[in-house]
Amino acid sequence: MRASARSKSTERSPPVAPGGRVEGIYLCLRRGEAPLAAAEVEAVPGRGLVGDRYWAGAGTWSHWPGAGREVTLIAAEVLDSLPPAYRLSGAEARRNLVTRGVDLNTLVGRDFRVGSVWLRGRRRCEPCAHLERLTRPGVAAALLGRGGLRADILVGGRIRAGDFLACGGVAPA
Questions:
Q1: Mind listing the pLDDT tens digit for each residue in 122-170?
Q2: What are 42's strand-pairing partners?
Q3: Which 8-state DSSP code applies to residue 20?
Q4: CA dist 118 to 49, 58, 86, 130, Å?
Q5: CA pair distance 92, 112, nearest whole angstrom
Q6: Of 48, 59, 126, 169, which has the highest C-beta tally within 10 A?
Q7: What global pTM score does this model have?
Q8: Three-state DSSP class for 166?
Q9: C-alpha distances in angstroms, 104 versus 75, 85, 117, 120?
Q10: What is the predicted pLDDT for the residue at 20?
């Protein structure tokens, strides 16, 4: 496929079939603390997930400019595929939502729904030295290119463990 044809097919971004689910929800009250599992959480546009350090403006990267700090997601399939020496639990991955059944990298620049909440994928959530310091050496390299997704909340509401993740469409205004 020629480069121009490839970029045109990417620009169209056809809807991805629904089928993903939220497998876990994790919130961390303070920077550096271990995230705690939650059955559900309130998502607030412009703020994040109620009870999380980023909602409170107390996250490690809260004061850095840029979008994509309200919600982070990681695929359970990625965590399952890590070599045993680098295996992480959903909480250790330090992402808010653990999903299954959707390729999160395809959601960069796209609107999608988690339960009744609309999110916009902003950028990949690449692993950093901070994650490695809080877990174990080598984790960042093991997650490179598949560390998850950073998203902003377009339409708020409640997210519950087990909610479907539906891709495609445009968030209501």
A1: 999 887 777 777 778 878 777 888 889 999 999 999 999 999 999 877 7
A2: 158
A3: E
A4: 13, 24, 32, 29
A5: 25
A6: 48
A7: 0.83
A8: strand
A9: 7, 24, 16, 11
A10: 93
d(CA 44, CA 130): 26
Cα torsion angle, 3, 5, 6, 7, sign: positive
Q: Give burial (CB, 10 Å; 0-12/13-18/19+) of 61.
A: middle
For domain 20-167, give its CATH number from 3.30.70.3450, 2.40.33.20, 3.40.50.970, 3.40.50.1000: 2.40.33.20
Query: 93 CB contacts (<8 Å, ≥6 apart)?
Result: 26, 74, 79, 131, 148
Q: For residue 99, what are the β-bridge partners?
A: 22, 75
| Residues present in the chain in total | 173
Domains of the chain by residue range: 20-167
Instruction: Supply the pLDDT for residue 96.
Output: 96
